[in-house]
Amino acid sequence: MRPIPKFPLWLALAGLILSSQIAAQESADSTVQRQNAIKIFIDCAHCDMNYIRDEIPYVNYVRDVKEAQVYILETSENTGSGGRKYTFAFVGQKEYEGKNDTLVYSSRPDDPRDIRRIWRTQMIKMGLMPYVAKTSLYNEVLIGSSEAVEKQVVVDRWNNWVFELEAEPEFEGEESYQELSLRSSVSAVKITHDWKLEFDFDHRYTRTKYTFDDTLYTNDKSYQGLDILAVKSLGEHWSAGLRTDLLSSSYTNTDLSLDILPSLEYNIFPYSKSTHRQLRFLYGIGPSIRRYNDTTIYNEIEEVLWLQELQVAYQVQEKWGSINVALEGSNFFHDFTKNRVELNGYISVRILKGLSVRVGGAVARINDQLSLVKGEASEADILLQLQELETSYHLEGEVGITYTFGSIYNNIVNPRFGNGRRWY
Q1: Beta-strand (E) ranges in 238-300?
Q2: What CATH number has the domain bearing residue 52?
C-alpha cells in the first residue's frame, strides 16, 4: 500500500494565516465602505425609526443634524378625503450643499398604519437614491418595479365628500363616586383646490353621582355644538369664507349661541408652501345671537350683539426646529371693554450638538364672560366644575430640555425586551 503523504504543518499554518488576513481585509473594506455611506438625519413627528433602519440599511443615521450630509424633514396635513398628505424635503449639506428635492405622498383615509409606514419609508428610499448613487454603497441597492396595473378611470360617487361618525361612552366609578360620559360626533368635509366645506357636530353629556354624609347627589353637564365652515380660494395668498358656530352648553349657562362671521384671510407665504411655512391673518365680523339658561350678571336672558375677531398664526418647520404660534383677539362692539386676547403655541429649537429646547404654553386675558350666572355658585358646582366661574386670565405652560451625547451613529435595531421601560 502506498503511504499517505503527510501534509506539511507549515503549509497548513500559512493557509490559516492567509485566510484570516483575507477575512480581516474584507472586514476592513466593509468598515471603510460603511463609513463612506451617506449620513442622514430624519426629522419627523411620528416615524417608526426601527422600521426605517431595517428597510434602509445602506446609510448612516446620525443623532445630530449638523453631522448629516442629508437632512430629511417630513411634514403632514389632512387631505380632503380624510387621509394625510406627507411632504418630504431632502436638503443636502456639506459636500451635497444645494442638492435638494421634495417628494409628496398622500394616504387614503382607510389605509392602515402599516400601509402608511411602508409608503412613507418608500418615499424616503426614493429621495435618497441621488445621494446613495454617489457613494461606494450604490452596488448594495437594487431598484425594481411592481407589476403593471391596468389603468382605470376613477369615478367618485361621493363627489369628494367625506363623512365620519363617532361614539365614545365612558364610565368611571368607585364606592362613593360614579361618572358616566357620552360623547358623539358627526362630520362632513369636502375639500378641493377651490373650496373647503366643513360641517362638525359634537355632543357631550356627563352625569356625576357622589355620596356624602349618606346623601346621594346627582349632577348633569351637557354640550352640543355645530361648526360650519365654507372657504373659497382666491389664489396663492387670499381666501374668503363664512364661519358659523352654534352651541348649547350648561357649563357656560348658554341655551343657544349663534355666531355668524364672514371672514377674510391673507397668507404672506403661498398656500402651496404651507407644510413648511405659514403666516396667516384672519379677520371676521358678524352678529352673535345669544339666549341664556338663567339670568346673567348683566341681567340679560337673551341678546343680539356684534362681534369681531382677528387671528394671526405663524408656523415654520426647518432643520433648526419648529415654531407654531397663534395670537387671537376679539371684542364686542356694544362695549369694547368686553374683549379677549389669547396667545398660544410652542417653539422647539436645536441649540447645540445634541441639545434641544422646547417651550410651549398659552396665556389669555379674559374680559368677555357675558354668560356668567347671576348669584353665587354652589359648592357642588365649583368642586365638580359644573358651572363657569369668573376669571380674568388663563395660563398654562411647559419647558423641556433634551441633551444626548455619545456615538453620532444610530444604525442598529434591537427590539429585545421592548423599548426602554416599555415592553411593547
Answers
A1: 238-249, 254-267, 277-292
A2: 3.40.50.10070
Chain centroid to Cα 276, Å, comes to 13
Asked if residue 197 lies in contact with residue 230, where contact means CB atoms within 8 angstroms, the answer is yes
In three-state secondary structure terms, 311 is: strand
For residue 98, give the DSSP letter. Answer: T
C-alpha 308/C-alpha 288 separation (Å) is: 10
Q: Whole domain around residue 313: which residue ranges?
A: 161-403
Does residue 220 have a pLDDT over 60? yes
Give the total number of structural domains in the chain. 2
Q: Which of 186, 218, 221 is nearest to 205 (CA)?
A: 221
Contact between 104 and 88 (Cβ < 8 Å): yes
CATH of the domain at 226: 2.40.160
Which residues face 86 on adjacent strands?
76, 105
Instruction: Give the DSSP H or E segment for 115.
Output: helix 113-132
Answer yes or no: do 76 and 192 share one domain.
Answer: no
| pLDDT of res. 149 | 47
Q: With respect to residue 9, please indicate whether it lies within any of the assigned structural domains.
A: no
- What mean pLDDT is predicted for residues 301-306? 94
- Do the beta carbons of residue 266 and residue 281 sit within 8 Å? yes
Query: How many CB atoms are located within 10 Å of the residue 373 CB?
Result: 19
Cell of 88: 418630504
